[in-house]
Specification:
heterodimer; B: alpha/beta; GMP Synthetase, Chain A, domain 3; four-stranded mixed β-sheet; three-stranded mixed β-sheet; 4 helices; about 25% helix; elongated
Chain lengths: ~290, ~160
């Protein structure tokens, strides 16, 4: 744990070097803030944090699109809040990862190219109709809940601390997704049809979530091998679908290599929108 | 300027949450520690939610309140661990919330296989006959409720366990 000085922060207000994501100079989480361990992460731990952070960041960006477009005002607020939580997790993970390269969360979010992102294909899938977004939330929130729960035992104290914070919030995301899956699955003929369609659209990207990489083996107790989450995820996901009277899709998984920087055509468009301001006006703040 | 840790803590505890101005950061339970390192006041706080934008304002307010009390050097530490939960909120904080019109968190949340909805009391007429309108409210830490007796909609500071 280290610190930042308020005088310094106040002085930098309005300064062109101040972060574009900070409205006020107090700063939410900076690399030094979240570093419970004094040392920088190793290159491999940073790579792992990058994966966790990128998934949350791209999902946050996707979900933010629902703001002002929700089917009802409560959903506008709910999806906006979930996006904000995800952005918070992304900032923590990316700030931590960035330390190893002497960079900041902003450098990683705004100045990396598409092939440098390590996010899963599922988070970059278009929002579609409300049913598609809910199906994606169900898939992801059950996954993240299991993942962050397992990461409470990570031997890296910073990863464990961020996960401990994140899991409480994802708990609410999962509740939200389950409640809507039930409502849509058991609702009208049309809402059930849309949920079936949504599951078919997203199912091909489920496989990638559980693929182990060499990195996981290298990291040992720091990381969680995604394949170990599969059985619990299957059980939980199937149970929700059964309650919602929806069948598990039987479509095969697609080839997806987001972890290697090979993305679908969607990510480029997401980044173009997310990065344009920072790139057009480098160092801008308000 | 010489001050005891208790005095310093009292100064830090004057800072209120920008979203819920009736609650101080001490009531909320996000003020973790205040100490003096040479001539620098070191305050440790923790966020309620990962994405909580109020942390910026709180950090800035801490600087202001200590400067007004004659302490020029202030440093704010942000820690994530142990993670905040609504159990950190003081009883007086909960009473202030209710008086302000926000239902305070009840119970210690759900950590079992079944999500158990505990009764939420209307801060206006104190009826327990209320319903959840939305799990998510105007800030990350609140959800929206309505009283079925007096019909008033109200915020509920939701449980985070």
């Amino acid at each position: 744990m280290s610190t930042h000085d308020i005088d310094h922060s106040l002085d930098s207000f309005g300064d062109s070097t101040a972060s574009a994501t900070r409205v006020t100079p107090g700063n939410a989480l900076r690399p030094e803030d979240i570093a419970i361990a004094q040392a920088k992460p190793s290159e491999q731990v940073a790579e792992y944090a990058l994966r966790l952070g990128d998934d949350a960041l791209i999902l946050a960006q996707r979900l933010s699109h629902w703001i002002s477009r929700g089917p009802e005002i409560e959903e506008d607020i709910a999806l906006g809040n979930i996006a904000l939580d995800q952005l918070g997790h992304a900032r923590s993970f990316l700030s931590y990862a960035a330390k190893v390269w002497d960079k900041t969360e902003d450098d990683l979010a705004y100045w990396r190219e598409e092939e440098d992102f390590r996010s899963l294909h599922i988070v970059e899938q278009p929002n579609g109709d409300f049913g598609v977004t809910i199906a994606r939330q169900l898939i992801i929130s059950i996954y993240q809940h299991l993942l962050y729960t397992a990461l409470l035992e990570s031997s890296d104290p910073t990863i464990a601390a961020i996960s401990a914070k994140a899991v409480k919030e994802v708990d609410y995301h999962r509740d939200h997704a389950i409640a809507w899956t039930l409502r849509l699955g058991l609702g009208t003929e049309e809402s059930a049809r849309r949920m079936r369609h949504a599951l078919d659209v997203l199912w091909p990207y489920v496989g990638e979530m559980f693929e182990d990489e060499e990195l996981h083996a290298t990291l040992g107790d720091v990381a969680v091998a995604p394949s170990t989450l599969r059985a619990a995820w299957d059980q939980e996901f199937s149970a929700v679908l059964a309650d919602a009277e929806l069948a598990l899709p039987t479509i095969p998984f697609a080839m997806a290599r987001g972890r290697r920087g090979e993305h679908s055509e969607h990510l480029g468009f997401i980044l173009a929108e997310m990065q344009v301001l920072a790139r057009k006006h480098p160092g801008a703040s308000w | 300027m010489i001050a005891t840790v208790t005095e310093l803590r009292e100064i830090a505890a004057r800072v209120t949450d920008p979203e819920i101005p009736v609650l101080t950061i001490a009531d909320l339970g996000i003020l973790r520690n205040v100490e003096l390192e040479d001539d620098t006041v070191v305050v440790t706080i923790t966020p309620t939610y990962s994405g909580c934008p109020a942390m910026d304002a709180i950090t800035e307010d801490l600087g202001t309140v200590f400067k007004a009390s004659g302490f020029g050097k202030v440093r704010v530490n942000l820690v994530l661990s142990p993670a905040w939960s609504t159990d950190w909120m003081s009883d007086s904080g909960k009473a202030k919330l209710e008086a302000y019109g926000i239902a305070p968190p009840t119970g210690t949340g759900h950590r079992g296989p079944v999500t158990l909805g505990l009764g939420v009391k209307c801060p206006q007429c104190h009826s327990l006959n209320t319903k959840e309108l939305s799990r998510f409210g105007s800030t990350s830490c609140k959800s929206m409720y309505q009283c079925k007796d007096c019909l008033e909609p109200f915020d509920y500071f939701k449980v985070l366990s």
